[in-house]
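note to self — DONT lose this again. spent like an hour looking for the file last time. sequence + predicted structure for the chain T wanted, 142 res
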Amino acid sequence: MDNNTKVEDTQKFIKFSLKSYAENTGMNSVILYKGEIVGVAGYNEIDSANKIAYIGYWLGREYQGNGIITRVSKALTDYAFNELKLNRVEITVAVENKKSRAIPERLGFSNEGCKRQVEWLYDHYVDHIFYGMIAKDWNNKK
């Protein structure tokens, strides 16, 4: 969402989201909080062949720190395993984004490694930490 700065960018994102949902390759939705749209979250990609969902999220700065994304990510993980019958969920986060990294860590995802310079963000490349959860481990936690 960091490169979404114009109305046209949002229109492209909505078209992409509708297409990926129709093709069962992704699922994005808005986050409602106290009746307001405060962000977006969902599966950036659903890999049906390998039964993997890749969770992504963005939340307005003024709504951060309220546990919203943690609850949303938990619900998306539950849905991926219990409704979509997937085997794995991944969340990828920029190394320096400590608030975002806390979400998969809080939910018990495993830190499975770092890829260097995988995203151009603002004016430089950033490294990503990959967090994973498999259905068996998620359902055993309950």
